[in-house]
């Protein structure tokens, strides 16, 4: 595991993009995350694309998760998030982008379909944020490391943290999500995890120090992954 600390999240995201570019080529498959953490990295990707330095024409992407219970055109749905923060600004073919179909009438079938797609894919680089409770994707503490795609009941702290995107109104925050499982995340060839701000410090400490690998702190499984890059700003640095 490579642990890299930067003065600001902007600096960390710039470096993360540099590494990402070394790990992929024009035909790669990316695993993508949402939330506030990857926004600056996506900005770097967009800027470089605009300069003509990289094309996403043949890139495929798979997103980690999507809320259950909100429309895809809701500004906080992860479908909308990806359009607004990345897909609408690069030349990726939308047919090559995949996000869990959490709004499907037959949700069980949708989970199976996403699992099958993932099983038939190798993600070259998985981008991850981390929850203050150590969740990756929406695999909340206590989730088995063996899980695949599933519906999750979001923990109270996650709902509270995400209420900042929903007028600070907990009632408006979806209470469930569909997420890739830990097992799916671990199959990626490389992982780039970003974490910014003091709320992430404890999770980063468990992730980057000591021997603990425990389902109660989901990110600790990444200690077993052969290629993980962790980029933090100085506020998330535990030292
Ligand atoms: C989002 C995701 C989550 C977030 C995490 C941190 O697709 O899978 O694990 O990465 O909740 O969220 P932010 O970045 O908003 O602090």
Automatic annotation (TrEMBL):
GO terms for molecular function: glucosamine-6-phosphate deaminase activity; identical protein binding. Pathway: Amino-sugar metabolism; N-acetylneuraminate degradation; D-fructose 6-phosphate from N-acetylneuraminate: step 5/5. InterPro entries: Glc/Gal-6P_isomerase, Glucosamine6P_isomerase, NagB/RpiA_transferase-like. The active site is at residues 65, 133, 135, 140. Residues 11-224 form the Glucosamine/galactosamine-6-phosphate isomerase domain. Keywords: Carbohydrate metabolism, Hydrolase. One of its GO terms (cellular component) is cytoplasm. The keyword Hydrolase applies. One of its GO terms (biological process) is carbohydrate metabolic process. It catalyses: alpha-D-glucosamine 6-phosphate + H2O = beta-D-fructose 6-phosphate + NH4(+). SUPFAM superfamilies: NagB/RpiA/CoA transferase-like (SSF100950). It is an enzyme of class 3 (hydrolase). Its EC number is 3.5.99.6. The keyword Hydrolase applies. It comes from the Bacteria. PANTHER family: GLUCOSAMINE-6-PHOSPHATE ISOMERASE. Catalyzes the reversible isomerization-deamination of glucosamine 6-phosphate (GlcN6P) to form fructose 6-phosphate (Fru6P) and ammonium ion. NCBIfam families: nagB (TIGR00502). Belongs to the glucosamine/galactosamine-6-phosphate isomerase family. NagB subfamily. This is Glucosamine-6-phosphate deaminase. The gene is nagB.
